[in-house]
Fold each of these.
Amino acid sequence: MKRVACTLLILLGACGGDETQPAKAPEDQALVRHEQAGMIAYDLDRPDEAVAQFEAALTQAQARDDLKAIADLSFNLAVAQLRANRPADALKTTQQARAELIRRGSQPFPSLLLAEATALYRLDQRGQADALAAEVEGAGDADAAAGASFLRGLIADESGDEAALRAAAGRLAGVSAPLRVADRQELQARLALRQDDFVTAQAAAMHAATVRQEGLDYRGMARALAVAAAAAEQAGERELAADLYLRAGRSAAAQSDAATARPWLERALGLTQDDATEDAAEAALAGLP
């Protein structure tokens, strides 16, 4: 989810018939340092620090009036804001970048639009999110299109639209990148859950959770664990469901996402008869703001 934030300008020249080597334009070292620090912070799962660094880099890009750097750094900033559970800020960032690109005669790139659609979804503006994600699906960027199909699948599932969920899962049939495979498996798990195939739903969701864990996508991992928990609960496996809800809720709590963590932890408490599970869920709830 990273983009190259700066371009190097190649200056070509000749003098008196002698060939000269291509020269690089001087880099804006302040911009480069902030951008690199933001990427390092993001990779170390320090999203708030990444936000601060990308904001500083974006300010520097605006100072040099570099449209490409402004667009790329706006994308990086929005992704970090989403990871820091600041979807309203991410929406503002992406919409401002999109407006500037259009104002200056450039088209917004698909991954920027996908970040905007994700922010809309996280803010419960699902209709707008779905419409924008549909645009991304047809924009010619295969990875962004796959991400948009996954987002549309989540929206369809939460809206109770099984046909749209099945269609979204079908559009991910040919993906090969690990996290996109996890996207497909999660949609398949959700579809199986709607068809009362609890064994398939739980297995697919757990596989998706494992892939997301290995890919450092902890938010997605927690969500997949919750899908597996729902499958176990509907299959009558109360203690397994409680354990999975606990793990999902504890992960979300550790990511400072109290709104997501609370209902999962409360569900774990409602299902379990195990003292250790109950104590762990209560401790995680107590730590929420």
Amino acid sequence: MDYRINRDIKFQPLDLVDAGRLADECPDRWWNQPLCLVNDCVVRLGVFEGEFHWHKHDLEDEFFFVLEGSLLLDLENRTVELAPRQGLLVPRGTLHRTRAPVRTVVLMIEAATVVPAGD
């Protein structure tokens, strides 16, 4: 599957962040867009359908929060299903992958140093 992972920060301080419009206009099956920086972290918007590869982040935690759809977070020993308005913190060094059986919109918060595709 092709992933579209952007690196540019879309919004500056005091800009209106219209995440709903961005998600609605996204034609991609797997898309990740940094929205803004908050201190040393980046807030990302993802639109997912399908599965991402197994990976980990050696130095950074990663928080997933579902806005729409359903996100499966596969860990080494279990799978956690997130419904809208549910989130999960994946600690640094944890092998994981995300899967979305239907089009899913997710907010992610992580250190700005993270490599989105994993280390």
